[in-house]
Design a protein that fits this description.
single chain, alpha+beta, CBS-domain, 2 domains, three-stranded mixed β-sheet, 5 helices, Diverse_CBS-Domain, CBS_dom, CBS domain, CBS domain-containing protein
């Protein structure tokens, strides 16, 4: 598969769709089972958010399955979910400190 460094070296390659399609053709013929990560872990639904973020960082994943108390899949949490929650909390905090309310156009 072509790496992003190839595109940095020759940006014109980024527009060569036939070449990209050819490079990816062998991957498209594989099953999900052949591509999936075999390193499986999950996090409990009651675990702290920072533990989930630490586990993702430790294992190099951007999302992990969340299991309920019954050990069944409850959902998936991603780094993006965590970043968004932190951003929204900070935004609400800044909004409150500035004396504005949600929906106020002065933000």
């Amino acid at each position: 598969l072509p790496g992003y460094t190839q595109f940095l070296e020759d940006p014109a390659q980024a527009l060569d769709f036939p070449a990209m399609e050819h490079a990816y053709s062998s991957v498209l013929l594989k099953s999900v089972g052949q591509l999936m990560s075999r390193s499986v872990f999950s996090i409990g639904i009651d675990e702290p958010v920072m533990k989930a973020a630490a586990q993702m960082d430790l294992h190099g994943f951007r999302r992990i399955p969340v299991v309920g108390r019954d050990k069944r899949l409850a959902g998936i949490v991603s780094l993006s979910d965590i970043h968004q929650a932190i951003f929204l909390r900070e935004l609400e905090s800044a909004t409150f400190q500035n004396g504005t309310e949600k929906g106020d156009d002065r933000i």
